[in-house]
Amino acid sequence: IVKEGFRPGHGGWCGGAIYFIDHPYLPRSKFAPGVTEAGAILEAKVRMGRMATHFDRHCKGYGGHGKWAAQHRGYDSIRFNPGDGNEFIIWHPSQVVSVRIWKILHH
After folding, report:
1. Rg (CA), the chain
2. For residue 27, how far is the Cα from the chain centroid?
3. Which residue from 36, 62, 67, 91 puts its CA 20 to 30 A from 50's CA?
4. The pLDDT value given to residue 38
5. Considering only CA atoms, which of 80, 83, 84 is closest in space to residue 28?
């Protein structure tokens, strides 16, 4: 990721996108089974642009669902809370300004 950049995923509460949180430790409740592994904590600076914030805990709002609804209303990003803390979502990798390794995690 540090060398080649972020790429939108194919799933997630709000659809295929790039998901961030605003603190350095991922709570277990946000682990994706079979996907989340130990490795490193990255710090990313992201241009959020115009942010959609009125989604329910299932990422429904703005007359639709997730990324699709936000894009069609002219938003560049989403902030939503599925019940265990805010998540920040973008869909264009070019919105990531910089990435650095904040901490290496050992198994």
Report:
1. 14
2. 14
3. 36
4. 67
5. 84
Tens digit of each residue's pLDDT (9 = 90 or more) over 65-82: 999 999 999 999 999 999
Quick one: three-class SS letters along the chain?
CCCCCCCCCCCCCCCCCEEECCCCCCCHHHCCCCCCCCCEEEEEEECCCCEECCCCCCCEECCEEHHHHHHHCCCCEEEECCCCCCEEEECCHHHEEEEEEEEECCC
Q: If you average pLDDT over residues 12-33, what whole number do you get?
A: 82
Tell me if the pTM is above 0.70. Answer: yes
**Angstrom distance (rounded) from CA 85 to CA 17:** 18
Mean pLDDT of 7-35: 82
